[in-house]
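Sorry, explain these tokens?

___
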Amino acid sequence: MSKLPLIDTTTKVEKSISEIVGYLEKLGFDQMIQGSSKEKGRFIAAQKDGIAFHWTVNPVKVMQAIIEDKGEKIKVQAERVAWRVMKHKIKADCDAILYEAAEIADVFAGYLVMNTKGGQTTTFGKYLAQAQADGKLTAPDIMAPLMIEDNTK
């Protein structure tokens, strides 16, 4: 019995990305960039009030989960599923913001683009995940690279 609901595998990635861009535009995001890189795959980048955000999916991980669940290789479907899942998530997040049930910072903080000490660009969510994996998820360790003052002392 399948554990994963196989979301729409017929909708083209471009349609999902287009719908995501539409949701973000309704919230006043601008300077939208859609692209692709070898390292990150397809992505969407946008700004809201001068603050940069970055969204991407990992179709390889989705494909692995589907293969593990379904026992078959379906690369094209995996990318479609990955973007449909992201589309549904962003739509729900945008709806929460539009209905004032949440703030942009609450729902999109993990996608906030930041520079690391080494001059690399990452998202805040990936930065936190790496800090947790490295055992450095403590207030002083996180605040130092973000240049946030620790007022708890």
About this structure: The beta strands are 30-37, 41-48, 51-56, 113-115, 121-123. The first strand starts at residue 30 and ends at 37.
